[in-house]
Design brief:
This protein has 511 residues and is of the alpha/beta class. It has helices at 31-39, 43-49, 87-100, 119-132, 162-187, 195-209, 218-224, 227-233, 287-302, 347-360, 374-380, 392-402, 416-421, 438-447, 482-493, 497-501; strands at 2-6, 17-22, 59-63, 71-76, 106-109, 152-156, 212-216, 241-248, 257-261, 263-267, 307-317, 329-331, 337-339, 365-370, 385-389, 409-411, 429-430, 455-459, 465-466, 476-477. It is built from 16 helices and 20 strands. Strands 7, 8, 9, 10, 11, 14, 15, 16 and 18 form a 9-stranded mixed sheet that branches.
Length: 511
């Protein structure tokens, strides 16, 4: 997709359609929208005063046959007072999905006056949203209906800082491509996205982004004592893989951030088998791992001054003849023994060894992401991911850095009571403590494998994929937590960690 930033007069821009922002309320039109409204005889103002209420991603198409742009698409941005730059990604995505399905290949975007002073963020979100709006779930259809074939995005820089817009657009293209890479991996069915396939895709992305990569096979895992991950893998003919991506951006520092992602390429539940209904969605159980691989790709492209490793334990969880059974005891890499109460609580088992391995590789901070518990969906629905950890400064920094991305994270507690609930009568730990506070007992289980290393756990079970589409994004995988990971890494590279610990809001390069 080609991206152009132009300073031409809005009315002279040649494109299949011109997209203009509209706020709710009496003063819905401003800037370019107001200028274009005058050129086409006040049609936008008439519609804005009537049927178009300016709600976020609300759409109205207006014909302008005698203009260089043949159509004007009004897209709502909600209340002016509540505007945040990330909403521009949804604005752009909604436009691309609406116009793209109608055959438009060149789309011009006007920005609201509120983008002034925030041009880098605005450029990044417009391009990110445009790219992520192109993805559909039709990748295996021979004759997909109404495919989106966007070729060019034009951003109108009238009255804005063009250089900052260009800087942001470059970042947005990298981030949009990364988010889409994660979504495509998650969309791929489990027969084409085995642990081996996942490692192969990681190698391809690592090569593109200039990352180092190492993939451990099961023999190497045995040497490291990764009995917890290997216990999950026993039920499948597909060999597990431990994927390690390395980005060395600061040779003067010994600090290393580890991003760890659950890579369950299919989860049947094992012996504790899941109900058949919606089991096909368990191909998405590797979304955390896909998010780590994609975030590392973006980090390699953006080149922040920081050291980051991405660790993805990849496995299948199937009820084969050698599958682990309820009552079995596994031994993790750090020597802790685990009683298997429920074989469907497997994500924490593969993460246990990945967290231990991250520490062995020198991680001084760890963030893991996993579609870990249905309990988190019960608690937060699909509106936010659960967040818990062992270091308050790290947590507050992550929350501050992730907030501008539009991804939502909700801080949940890890009281000692939850750790007590995971104790086993015959082993050090049990992998399931029942229904009560299920997401928190799972988090407490993981905490036992990070030692004193500052650590955050993200439960993305309710946000990694959605059952219905939105105006700006197809149904299925969302790319969470790629945006937050990248924003947090940029914030660390910018030296915002100390400021965040003192209560200031973390910044990133463009947001």
């Amino acid at each position: 997709m080609q991206v152009r930033i132009v300073t031409d007069a809005p009315g002279s821009v040649r494109a299949g359609a011109l997209v203009v922002p509209v706020f709710s309320g009496d003063s819905g039109l401003d800037g370019v929208a107001k200028t274009i409204d005058t050129e086409i005889g006040g049609a936008l103002a008439d519609i804005s005063a009537g049927e178009h209420k300016g709600k976020l991603a609300e759409i109205t198409l207006v014909h302008a046959r005698d203009k260089n742009f043949k159509r004007v698409l009004m897209v709502g941005l909600g209340e002016r007072a509540k505007f945040e730059p990330y909403m521009l990604a949804r604005y752009a995505g909604a436009a691309v999905r609406y116009l793209g399905k109608r055959g438009f290949t060149e789309i011009a975007f006007a920005l609201p006056e509120l983008a002034k002073g925030k041009e880098a963020a605005a450029g990044s979100f417009i391009v990110e949203g445009a790219l992520t709006g192109t993805i559909d779930t039709t990748m295996y259809q021979n004759e997909p209906d109404k495919t989106i074939k966007l070729q060019k995005v034009i951003i109108l820089a009238d009255g804005l800082d063009r250089k900052e817009l260009e800087k942001g657009a470059e970042r947005g293209e990298i981030l949009g491509e990364a988010v889409n890479a994660a979504r495509r991996m998650a969309l791929t069915p489990a027969n084409d996205m085995t642990p081996t396939h996942m490692a192969k895709r990681a190698k391809e992305l690592a090569k593109e982004a200039g990352l180092d990569i190492d993939v451990l096979d099961e023999d190497e895992m045995k040497k490291h004592g990764m009995g917890s991950l290997l216990g999950v893998s026993r039920g499948s003919d597909e060999e597990a893989k431990m994927i390690v991506l390395t980005y060395k951006g600061d040779s003067s520092s010994k600090d290393v951030l580890a991003l760890v992602g659950k890579g369950l390429t299919f989860d049947s539940g094992g012996i504790s088998i899941k109900p058949a209904e919606n089991m096909h969605e368990m191909k998405y159980d590797m979304s955390g791992g896909a998010g780590v691989i994609a975030a590392m790709y973006a980090i390699g492209k953006l080149k922040p001054k920081i050291n980051v490793i991405g660790v993805v334990p990849a496995s299948e969880n199937l009820p084969g003849p050698r599958a682990m059974k309820p009552g079995d005891v596994l031994k993790a890499m750090n020597g802790k023994t685990i009683e298997v109460i429920n074989t469907d609580a497997e994500g924490r088992l593969i993460l246990a060894d990945a967290l231990c391995y991250s520490a062995k590789l020198g991680a001084t901070k760890i963030i893991d992401a996993a579609t870990l518990t249905g309990a988190c969906v019960v608690a937060l629905g699909h509106a936010a991911s659960g967040l818990m950890g062992n270091d308050e400064n790290l947590i507050q920094h992550f929350l501050a850095a992730s907030k501008p991305t539009g991804e939502r994270y909700w801080h949940m507690p890890l009281f000692d009571d939850y750790a007590t609930a995971t104790k086993s009568e015959i082993a050090d730990l049990r992998n399931s403590a029942g229904r009560a506070a299920g997401s928190l007992t799972a988090g407490s289980f993981l905490k036992a494998f990070v030692g004193e290393t500052p650590w955050i756990h993200l439960d993305i079970a309710g946000t990694a994929y959605l059952e219905g589409e939105s105006a700006w994004q197809a149904k299925g995988p969302t790319g969470t937590p790629v945006r937050a990971f990248v924003s947090f890494v940029e914030s660390l590279a910018n030296g915002d960690e100390k400021a965040s610990a003192n209560g200031a809001v973390a910044k990133t390069a463009t947001i």
